Amino acid sequence: MTNDLDALLTALHGKIDDEITDTRWLGRPPRLTDSELVCLAVAQAMLGFTRWLRFVGSRLGEMFPFVPRQPGWNKRLRAALPLVKRAIRLLATDTDSWFDNHWIIDSNPVECGRSRPTVKRSDLAGWAGYGYCASHSRFFWGLRLYLVCTPTGMPILWSLANPKLDEREVLTAMLDREPDTVTDRPGLLVITDRGFASKEFETDLAMRGAELLWPSFKREKRRKGESVNDTLKGQLDLEQHGGRTFEGVAVRVAQCVLALAAAIWHNHKTGQPITRSLIAYDH
Fold first, then answer.
1. Whole-number pLDDT of residue 228
2. Is the pLDDT of residue 163 over 80?
3. Could you please report the per-residue DSSP string of the chain?
4. In the chain, which segments carry CATH 3.30.420?
5. What pLDDT score was predicted for residue 205?
6. Which of 45, 67, 108, 232 is the Cys-Cys partner for 255 at CB 3.0 to 4.6 Å?
7. Are the C-beta atoms of 182 and 208 separated by less than 8 Å?
């Protein structure tokens, strides 16, 4: 583990412990606190999911004296999805990026299975579905991650949905769920790719007080600006999430979003020139 990751986990532990953790328990408090769980979730996403607990025992023992075994860790992590969501929002609102009036919207495939037998017996049946990945020119079975972020990469809103659903409908539902995120930002500019291009969707955003911007089609007048393809696949291994159930996939994806938010938050607090960079933490 690098000193930079050590510093990130230390700062994150203090932040979560001060502002989120509920210290009142009906019975005996857990040996692994909520603050420690959030930190371990970030470290796991940063460093990769493979053989994670073996790494914890040999490299992180001084910082985390107790870590449950694999079944216990998976059970605790799945139950911590609401906690992870709260942590993401806490970190986002603690940076200048939260007040940025430019949003970048993108969606990325989250593959959950390839073989037909896997699809038939998967616990994700009914939630996941078949979709098309344009960047790889292939079909996939799984979900699609919708991410609304600032130009620095800080996640503002995110959601998982069936890839057969219309992208504009999913984004509209996300905005309906938290309407204040738009109304609190006068002059908001929403930058998307061509998949979101629609006069109807553009009108809906205008009614919310936001302007839609997407790359120009060849058949229409050229627009200024381009969307930013900001994915979580490269350094945070989104495609290797390993989830097999609804809760498992959701919390593994949330881990990746949390790790991204934590890195940007820490880079902002330490005055790093590139706040989106994860290089100092992922090796």
1. 34
2. yes
3. --HHHHHHHHHHHHHHHHHT-----SSSPPSS-HHHHHHHHHHHHHH-STTHHHHHHHHSTTT-S----HHHHHHHHHHTHHHHHHHHHHHHHTSGGGG-SEEEEEEEEEEEE-SHHHHHH-TTBTTBEEEEETTTTEEEEEEEEEEEE-TT--EEEEEEE-TTS-HHHHHHHHHHHSTHHHHTSTTEEEE--GGG--HHHHHHHHHTTEEEE-PPPTTSPPPS-------SSTTT-GGG----SHHHHHHHHHHHHHHHHHHHHHHHHTT-S-TT--TTT--
4. 100-213
5. 92
6. 45
7. yes
What CATH code would you report for 100-213? 3.30.420
Take residue 186 and report the two structure tokens written for it. Answer: 């006068």
- Give me the residue label for tokens 């001060």: 18
Q: What is the mean pLDDT of residues 206-211?
A: 92
Q: What pTM, to 2 d.p., does this model score?
A: 0.86
How many Å apart are CA 252 and CA 237, to the nearest integer? 10
